Structures are given as C-alpha cells and as structure tokens.
Amino acid sequence: MEEKHIMVKCCRCRRVRLQDRWADEAEEPAGSPLYSHSYCPACSEQVHAELRSCSVVAAC
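Structure (tokenized):
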C-alpha cells in the first residue's frame, strides 16, 4: 500500500505548511498528497479580526 502524506493547506490563501513554515502552493511536494485545511497565522488573524467586527452574534 502506498503511503500518503497529509499536508495542511490554508483554506483562505491556499499556502501549505511545510514543517515549521507556510509556503506558496508552488513549493509543495510533487505527487498527490491528502490535505487537511486550516488557517495560516496571517489569515487566522484576519479572520478573527473580521469576526470580532461583526455586529451579529451567533447563538451556539
């Protein structure tokens, strides 16, 4: 069975996490890795700022 690597990709800017840094998609390894999605630190900060500025509060 072929081993698949799971890579983390930012769901906003599409950069990929390569060990300890976030890189452009062009730097991701060749092949067909599996992806898990998250936010890179820069996008996470932007998203949280946008959510804090919303006047509508969602009920959980």
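The helical segments are 41-53. Residues 51 and 57 are 9 Å apart (CA to CA).
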